[in-house]
Amino acid sequence: xxxxxxxxFEAKGWAQTTIRGVAREARVSVPTxxxxxxxxxxxxxxxxxxxxxxxx
Length: 56
Hints:
Layout lengths: L1 H11 L6 H8 L3 H15 L3 H8 L1
Helix pairs in contact: 2-3
């Protein structure tokens, strides 16, 4: 899901990328996107998951 979000951010920009669009492209539900990123944000802080994947 993170790679899908990153691809959309790069293609459309931050402001034009939506949760619904990420969910559609990743083939998951909108609540799944919120659930997954809520856990990462609460444990690691905003954006840490995407940074970690870039380095890994």
